[in-house]
Amino acid sequence: MFLKSQKIILGVFLLVAVFVWRAVFVGSSGLLLVSFLDVGQGDAIFIETPSGKQVLIDGGYGRQVLSRLGRVMPGYDKSIDLVIATHTDSDHLGGLIEVLKSYDVRTVVENGFQDNSVLLAEWNKEVEKNGARREIVKAGDQFILDNGVSLKILGPFSEDIKETPDKSNEVMVVARLVYGETEFLFTGDIERGDEIRLASSGAELKSDVLKVAHHGSQYSTTRLFLEKVMPVYTVISVGKKNRYGHPHTETLSRLASIGSTLFRTDYDGGITFMSNGRFLSLRR
Ligand SMILES: [Zn+2]
């Protein structure tokens, strides 16, 4: 039996143990963390705010995202606040279905696109089973994730939603994460047309970190768009020796011409950016 004072000491030890355990995983509590997970040919970006709110943007193709999340989240943590599906292609949505099976998700953010595909049927089923709240977003929406941390939705454009698109990537969820003086731009698989519309929309695009659109496809990452974003760092989420030839040499030379530092998940693996609201640091 424990005396009261022993209980208090034990409590303090447990608190310290939990803190150390968290520190091992998230590395730096009180910071905004943005991790580009290596999920092969696909996208998966994990965000943790200074107070611990968690967001996952896309999930790659299959179950790989689960082991990657295990590296940035402690094993006991089986909940995610916000899961964002930029669109319904399998290299973005496939892994999110696996995430829904394994994590308690509070809110799911979608572009609202629906078709008769097996993938979307499974997604709909798993969202329902999970009990997550569904939210369809459009340009102008905003999520306040934490004190001073906001996620501003820049796409899809509302006129595209009204016209009932044929393809999910015509209504891509594009989002800009801002914490103090640091910004991250997440572009999903947008192509030239959407980049030009974004660049002329008047929306603030300037960002320290740009998730290069569509795995470095030649049809994205236009010079005009890059000049608006002016990223210090760029990240291409791409599979080794993928059959699409991503990233394209033309895209790589456009990126080189703006002088940003490039990371590629096929060469560099996952990469985590940390922001204190003023400065960025990174961990590989
Ligand atoms: Zn993709």
TrEMBL record:
CDD domains: ComA-like_MBL-fold. SUPFAM superfamilies: Metallo-hydrolase/oxidoreductase. Residues 41-240 form the Metallo-beta-lactamase domain. This is Metallo-beta-lactamase domain-containing protein.
